[in-house]
Protein 1
Amino acid sequence: MEHIITNSINNQNATKYYYPNSVFNPGDIYTFKESKLTYQAKPIQCRVEANGCHTCISHSTDNRGYFHLKREEKNMKVHRRVYELIHGPIPQGLFVLHKCHNSECCNPKHLKLGDHDDNMIDRHLAGRTACGSKHGKSKLTDDQVKEIWFLLASGKSCASIARIFAVNPKTITDIKNGKTWKQVTDPLRNRLIAA
């Protein structure tokens, strides 16, 4: 597949073809030209960043940091469209993942396919998994969990601690057994789990 890229920094009128080994410099801006682009559709423009990521400058982001566009009456993420342009159709059930963990990146070299599990692992590695006090349904804070460990270490029962914090006793038991709130570290936690 050939995709025309217009390099608008070095030479305003220069047009070259995109190949996987194309070299760009930070600050370069290029446009993916799609062969079946209707006159209403906005072409994808990207700016090359110093870190190697290519940031879309032609479309807006959603509240999660992904750029969106519309093709053939269908809303889609820009990085998915870029992947399709370079590599062909995305098999059903697969995700386009960012090797760089930057949701704004559209660099074809930073994109890869993966299944749901791969996507969840990538999300966790990038620090985008809401856990602990960052989770919307959390009833406890990190400091409260540390206080719970202190109370457990001093001999209080799970039921009595649950009443103090207005949570289910199972919540306290799961904290005690190291099933939840693993991301909060404290010396008391390690002693309680080892016991």
Protein 2
Amino acid sequence: MHYRRTAIAILIGCLLWAPTAQADLSQDCNQEQNWPLRITACTEVIRIDQPTGANLAWAYHNRGVAYGKTGQLQSAIEDFNKALLYEGDNAGTYNNRGIAYQGLDEHDLALRDFNRSLALDPTYATAYSSRGNHYLLKGQYRRAIQDFDQALALEPDFSTAYNNRGVAYRELKQYERAIQDYDQALRLEPNSARAYKNRAKAHQALGQHERAIGDYVQALRIAPNDMAANNAMAWALYLNDRSAEGLSYADRALQLLPSHHALMDTRAHILAALGRSEEARAEFERAMAAGGPDWVRTYQQALQDHGFDPGQLNGLYGPRTEEALADCLKAGCRLLE
């Protein structure tokens, strides 16, 4: 989430508190390295300033940003509401409240706030990017690209806008165009694990598995405990007939999130490719137990597509599906590839 400090943040230089402890408090309420400390400090600023209201808008806004950064989205919204009450309309506050609404899947409220932000400040690149993200989540990829274009016209070095426009192009299957945007994002932000992961997905869609693997290596160098990157690396190695190397990444992904069916599925495919059929079947069964009927139905459809009869596509793992899975594994079929 891309939060921007509003104009009220400059009030930090105008605070009239004399004691050093209070000056430190104001700095803690404005710093961006320790979000829990910021919440504590801003809460104290609000308590001290309650009688006069001199810095309440600034403190509520800054605490709202910290709540958003720590995933406390409803608390963030409440603080942005109070900031708007004390300061009046502010483009940055509307944008940040919209981001919080979006995190709660309140997409209509988010769009309303992004529009309000842009009505107040049509040159606000971050709000265009935020609205572009909204359209991206709604699957309106061309509208998202238009907003990312606007953001980049206003702020040509906006790496997040390049990255997210790349996602929109990738969803439209314009993979080469997406890669160009990821290249730009990485030029501006060389340590962006997210941009490396996204570029890897585009390379993978083009069948460029070695390039995809290279990008996942870079992503994991930056963020070794990224569950999605470990799983994606495992799958890329599997697709490139390097399953023996991929197994450790699949294991690592499951260590990071032990109960996720898609991670079990990756590991099951790798075990099958390594000829460890019984272990693979057990892992497929674990994936079905974790994923529920929809995941069972996915396997049933895949088995049928491969020429094996799982019985009815009813989402129930019964004897017919079990037998079809065993036959598929014996034949070396690559189930969900």
Protein 3
Amino acid sequence: MKTRGFTMVEMLMATALAGVLMVGVMTVVVRLYSPPESSVQSLATGRGLDRWVHLLNRELSSAQSLQVAADQSTLTLTGPLGLDQVQRQSTHRPVQLRYRLVVIAGGTWLLREQESLDESTNQRMQRDLVGGPFQRLQFVVLPTARVTSPSSSASTLTRLRLRLWHADAVEPVLDRLLLSNAGVSP
């Protein structure tokens, strides 16, 4: 009686083929779950800064309150501004947001802190590194603007000037005027 089975060559060929397939699958998985460019690299370009300002504009338009620190380097917003940690989509959950500069490994980086206001767990704080290195960040609250439109009644908007300097820049790389419906808290 002769037993049939796989030869050593067949087993080695199957193992090699499985290895090649796994490398291909892992390459696809890594590309799917990692961003196309890191936050730091994307923020160094104008397009990265524009994306961040677009997010900040959305948050300002939905904020219920706005507060700028006395040194003008920290912005705190409160309202339904939550972002999902994985999908980066709006959850509309009540949060307190804080944008500020922090020193990490000798460089100064822009940090977005999101503290959930509707959960009583130890995982209420979410921190995202927006980019850097930056030298200075400045939020200046300007006098409010009264806006009227034919289709709606008059409203008062808070005007906020955002200025951001790269680590080696004399002039700000970003100087924008932003608008918010939120009232300014002392």
